[in-house]
Amino acid sequence: MDHSRRNLPQLLGEGRRWFEEALLAALAAAGAVPVSPTQAQLFSVLDEEGTTVAELARRMGVTRQTAHQAVHGLVAAGLLEQTPDPASARQRLIRRTAEGTRVHARAEEVLAALEERLAERIGAEAVAALRAALETPWGPPPAPDGGQGPAG
Question: What's the confidence (pLDDT) of residue 3?
């Protein structure tokens, strides 16, 4: 076995960091409020109508405390706001402000340009194949005993 060969999760992480670093640098160059990679990830999983902190944490795969800290930083930066959840008096929804919506739209433009740049570097077919593989449902993670998932 080749011990220098990186595993797939490492490669996926490196690809994600490539996009994050380029996105954050482009936004900073455009004068946007600086955000951390965690804050950028939170922004990307936020629903238009708003999302609870608990749901954001689940989507990001982080603790509620981590999601809460990221939300507070983005609220302080004027990119997000907290509003009452009409479905629950105890919860609040996290939504983009007008400035947050503007920055999000700019981020989407930057990401599209980065995808084009990647296609120039590794080929349009490779990018299309990567997208197709990542968009294909993988199903639940396999159980340790080799079963089909947590339920077995």
Answer: 64
On whether the CB atoms of residues 51 and 122 are closer than 8 A, the answer is no
Question: Which residues are bridge partners to 14 per DSSP?
Answer: none
> What domains can be seen in the chain, in order of their start residue?
36-132 (1.10.10.10)
Average pLDDT for 71-82: 96
What stretches of 6-97 show up as alpha helix (H) in DSSP?
A: 8-29, 37-44, 53-60, 64-76
The single residue listed with the structure tokens 């690809």 is 15
| Residue that the structure tokens 């990307």 belong to | 44
- Give the pLDDT confidence of 97-141 residue by residue, as tens digits: 999 999 999 999 999 999 999 999 999 999 999 999 999 999 999
Give every CB contact of residue 111 below 8 A, 6+ residues apart in sequence. 19, 23
Phi and psi dihedrals of 35, rounded to 5? -130, 155
